[in-house]
Design a protein that fits this description.
The chain has 288 residues and is an alpha/beta fold. Helix content is 35%, strand content 13%. It is built from ten helices and nine strands. The strands form two sheets. The protein has a seven-stranded mixed beta sheet with strand order 1-9-6-2-5-3-4, sandwiched between helices. It has a two-stranded antiparallel ribbon with strand order 7-8.
């Protein structure tokens, strides 16, 4: 450490003149930039969705969609080609295959992006949460759904059965669980958009649940750990039913609770009836 008596002499020293030799790097001419693709600008949107990641996912998933699940759509014309709409479907499979099938089908067949609402648990998982967002996953919250549907005119997918759908035992397949408390109906009313019901046949057999454990799952922060098999080549048939509209004024803070529950149960019944009809005419789990 310097002696304090030396400090004045230190400050009085002449400044050192830097050498005059320039060490600047001689710039090389940059190659001409390619014109920016407008569709690539702002690739990650406010929800975390990335069209580049969706393209990668579509490329990878296409053989599974076409050759493994052999997805077949009925009534696809019932999905609006513009404006917001809430797609509502039954949910099944230990690791549900219905969400990627629906998202892939809507985006490839109709050319419209689709956002999927799901529990915040997915967002909180390391790495998986980021990937989930890049592929179009959004935390299921009324404000998020409203902004997507009303403010941004997007297509949004929701499974009202929640975790109860995928958690069904194989012996309970195609027996729809209660559609929650009808929150999805209230959001559609408030946003002023139709609900498009979708009956999905094939997910129940693609990854059936033979048993499940909750003891270990709780320690891992999971709802359950299923005893299942890898994805089986069950043929998917997806029937899109006519849209459901509501003759109520959008934008209200409250709607009739009894009306909401009645509408929710009516939609659940329509999907259940469609599944029964599809199952009656199905010749084979594997070949449709």
């Amino acid at each position: 450490m310097a002696d304090p008596a030396d400090l004045p002499r230190i400050h009085e020293r002449e400044p050192v003149t830097p050498p005059t030799t320039s060490r600047a790097i001689v710039p090389f001419p940059s190659p001409p930039e390619e014109p920016a693709d407008p569709d690539r600008l702002g690739d990650v949107d406010e929800w975390g969705r990335s069209e580049r990641w969706r393209e990668i996912a579509r490329t990878i998933y296409e053989p599974i969609y076409r050759d493994w699940f052999r997805a077949e759509w009925q009534g696809l014309e019932n999905v609006p080609t513009q404006g917001g709409a809430l797609l509502v479907a039954n949910h099944a499979g230990a690791i549900p295959p219905d969400a990627p099938v629906i998202m892939h089908g809507i985006e490839t067949e109709l050319g419209r992006p689709l956002y999927g609402l799901a529990d915040h648990m997915f967002r909180d998982l390391p790495v998986v949460g980021t990937l989930w967002s890049r592929l179009g996953g959004v935390v299921a919250h009324p404000d998020n759904a409203y902004r997507l549907l009303h403010d941004q005119d997007q297509l949004v997918l929701v499974f009202p059965e929640g975790i109860k759908g995928p958690g069904k035992h194989v012996s309970q397949r195609y027996q729809l669980r209660r559609f929650g408390r009808g929150g999805y109906v209230e959001i559609a009313m408030r946003a002023g958009v139709p609900i498009v019901p979708i009956a999905v046949m094939g997910a129940e057999e693609a990854m059936p649940v033979f048993a499940k454990s909750t003891t270990v799952a709780r320690r891992l922060g999971l709802p359950y750990i299923p005893l299942t098999v890898g994805y089986l080549p069950s043929k998917f048939v997806l029937r899109v039913l006519p849209p459901v509209t509501f003759d109520v004024e959008p934008g209200q803070h409250r709607y009739s609770r009894s009306r909401i529950m009645d509408e929710s149960e009516a939609i659940r019944t329509r999907i259940q009836d469609a599944l029964h009809d599809m199952l009656r005419t199905r010749r084979s789990i594997w070949f449709g």
